[in-house]
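Hey everyone, long-time lurker, first post.

I ran two proteins through the pipeline my lab uses and got sequence/structure pairs for each. Pasting them in order. The first:
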Amino acid sequence: MIEVNHFEEVIQIKMSREVGGRLLYWVAAYLVDGLLIDTGCVHTAEELVKFLEGQDLKLSVNTHHHEDHVGANHLLKERFGIQIFSHREAIPLINRIPRLNQYQEIVWGHPEPTEVACLPETIETAHFLFNAIETPGHCKGHVALIEPERGWCFSGDLFVSERPKVLRPEEDISEYIKSMRKLEGLKTDRLILFTSIGKIVQDGRKALGSCREYLEDLSRRAKDLERKGLSPAAIRDEVFGGESHFVKLTGGHYSSENLIRAALRAQI
């Protein structure tokens, strides 16, 4: 299923696999001035392509290599012959079959390997100029696209909420904090976050600052508790009151304990 919304000159395309009348999880792509930012998952690729047949599509950028951001790449290149760009570190990961957990296969599916080009520092469309900014933390090769004149920030998975409670085991809080600081410091009049989960956050600087401060405080608190002899699981229970329900849903891939372990590793 897809849902289309508009914000200024940006078209938001929210996508979710539907099973038995139930929507599993929204992901969002954004179309602005012929540029498509992210391509959703395999399960919604045909619907996305059908929608884009009525649009002036020129090119696409993947903010990172994960399956819910590159799922329609192959089909878009096949149907429209467009060029797709990604960060140099994401290129080999997009052009291979990923290893997925069971929940990822169900919710998003395996994207076909796709050859993509190396993302330049700027992307120019007919009316806008986008700066590509490296924003690791969620994964290596993650980028945000910034339109400085409009204050638009297409932030991928850098920002989900101001107080996240779960994390994947490979995510890096130190890199998250550096990336958020980088975006907070942009010389733009405003900073609107267009997130991959479909949130459009109009006061992006405030949201990024709140999340960054939360992660910094969490790291300090977790390290204080570790010095008192608590294990990561015990720190999780002290801070969050137990484990998140995402553990069962994702087979342990997302968990509060992962977040605590990342907070303990963080160099703040």
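...and the second, right after it:
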Amino acid sequence: MARYPGEENERRFPESVLRDTVARVFAACGMTDGDAVTLADSLVHADRRGIHSHGVLRVPDYVKKLTEDGVDPRGHPRIVSDAGAALVIDGGNAMGQIAGTLAVDAVIDRARSVNVAFAAVRGSNHSGALDWYTMRIAAQGMIGIAGSNALPTMAPWGGVDKIVGLNPISIAVPGGEHGPIVLDVALGATAHGKIRVYAQKDQQIPEGWAFDASGVPTTDAAAALDGLIQPIGGHKGIGLALMVGLLASVLSGAGYGTESGNMVDGATPGADGQFYLAINVAAFRDIADFTAHISRVARQYRDSRRADGVERLYLPGDLEAEVAERNRRDGIPLNDEAVALIVEAATKLGVDTGPLLQAAR
């Protein structure tokens, strides 16, 4: 098949085969089959939408968490406080996707009766791409909002100590004929995982993404991994990151900042926190009227005047939706090193990757 620009060192894999292989890897780590599929689905979702920093690139790291670093592959999340619209969930030191699935199901169910529901999660771990959760909420005719704390990779504005995480946030709003509007952003100039992708490919990162360890701007991916991520919007980005982190951790009693670990020693198992919010649109106005209004807003946004040289204006989530459509059709693109790392992790666990490699296009 024809290659797209920049994909000369990539192969494409059918979603189903990739998901099955990754799920078998996680099951070999001791997870139940259902939880292993959930975890694999979250990673394939990210790759499908082109967010490879949160895709199956994470498999070796997740395997290490589950087999060496103290995350409980059989962790059992549960609701520990139920106060109507306010829920607290203990993740049981499971992977964050397992705790997050319980939280999302809970807020959707609760929002159907009380219209707005907020779940604060503690005892959790890395939770993957947040739009995986908010899009599930939006599919139920609700506005979904999710946030997470993250290992510190940024400094206070003007500082050099890593004490603030990227603390991502996602918002998904049900849409009309073109689907939901979906924002999923970390509050740094980039995600740490994206720098890892550049380092893996031995490519320089764009200017404005990172500082080196001394606080000097750098485009060297290796120096950036040892240094600091730049915040979006200067002091405004740091302020937003602080606030999202507080919502994701302090309400539930999860760890915040360095309490959750650091980039040298790694994450503290079970110290992460997230939050999930569902807003039932039908409580405010007729859902058909709402989505029709969203469609008008979307058309106005996309059809507004463009600067010279700009071919198209994208709403949040538009580009990812286009990539997802292409990847569903042509397969998930993975570079050779990412495939090798998955195969290595699988082989150590006795998982056969033959079907995956044979399915490559």
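Reply from user beta_strand_b:
Welcome! Quick read of the second one: Confidence is low (pLDDT under 50) at residues 1-6. The chain has two domains: 14-188+231-282+342-358, 190-230.
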